Amino acid sequence: MSGSDLHSGANATVPRRMAGFFGGLSGKLLSLTILAVMIAEVAIFVPSVANKRNTWLKEQLRVAAVASIVIDGLQHSKLPDALRDDTLMATGVKVIVLERDGTRRLIAATDMPPEVDKQYDLTEMKPLNAIRAAFDELLFGGGRVIRVFGPVDGTDMHVEVVMTDDALRDAMLVYSRNVFLLSLAISIITGFLIFLAVSRLLIRPIRRLTRSMQDFSGHPDEPGSIYQPQAGDDELAVAGQHLESMQKELQKTLRQQRNLAELGLAVSKINHDMRNILASAQLMSDRLGDLDDPMVKRLAPKLLRAIDRAVGYSNSVLAYGKSAEAAPRRRLVHLKPLVVDVSGLLGIEPESEIQFEIHIDDDLQVDADPEQLFRVIHNLCRNGMQALAGMEAEGAGASPKRISVSAHRSGSVVSIAVDDTGPGMPQKAREHLFSAFKGSVRSGGAGLGLAIAREIVLSHGGTIALVEKAQAGTLFRFDIPDRPVVMEEMKSNAGQSAAE
Predict the structure, then answer these.
(1) Of 97, 119, 248, 314, which residue is 20 to 30 A from 19 by alpha carbon distance?
(2) pLDDT confidence of 489, banded at 50, 70, 90?
């Protein structure tokens, strides 16, 4: 089974491919940059077009002031009407009124309009009024007669003119067109430059991350699909490093899952034949019990109990392949006889160099599943025995080799300790103490014993831990709490007792 099979399914959603340029982050970033610059240019355009209007009108007042001085200075020469009209046409106004030293004088007038559509005083033009007047001219101007008056810069004169607004509107439209084209050019250039910078810093690394995720999703078991992060300590570099770490860990997990799946298939095949073999062994053990040999009579009960447990393990071995232990069938169990059975199954005889000590009161009971509790104690004691046997094989010192199991009740919790005088737990095993396939101490071990023990203890609502101690060896302690009392069941039981 490949890694892609593990992560695919009938209801799996097919990941979408990355969009094209304009549908992806690159196109969106470029469009948003151009739009943002255009909005900024519009914010600049609003006061600037109002300033353009005011500047144009003031320029017209200055031109009219110069023309009025010329005309006023030639009054004694009897300026011809045609020349005066030409002067007014050159300034683009119909009427010029000059105010100087408190005196207002009509300097020239031609084609006097019957009425004036708009009046503008440039003496005090507030910004909002100037903006409002500028957009009014742009949107609704043209063909209107306006009256403009204001001071001439650098003099004490005031000039008033009457004119049409066609030239003013044309000048403002030309200015607006030029500003728009310039703003569009600036927006495109600015957006392109920002896009190049952001694309190099952000978009390209993000696209590499996305492509790596897509490649890994399609082929998670191929080493070449793992992301190769860039060097650095910025956010994207750190994200790439974490992605590489997660992909490597996931790839390792997928390999373990594949191995577990293959192991489960193999175990299911072995389990079928093993049950038949154990059933035959159980029948032969029953016949051994009928013999008169004292040794046989002493060992036969232990052999029968061992085979019974082996049959039970064989029937439930697939439960671990399903990544879950069966729910505990709890009842009150005398703990000491169960520990004695553990000693017998381990084959520790009184004359053995390894001492097996039991420090448990005869009447101590535990609210637990007896078979599962037996497995926990058996796994812990077997680990201790293997550690002590390894010391003996290596010729370690003559210190006593001892495994002791002790227990006591504190309220509704029973604490059980399994202690040995072996070499202790190495650091590598401590780092993955209760992890399957990682916590093995001895060479060739599967590392499942402690993982199974922890799972069983947790299913009973208890805790298990490695306890530090001053002397050499390993000490495990686990606590099994009693089940909480359900008041309804207690009342029901009390009612049945009273009825009896």
Answers:
(1) 248
(2) low
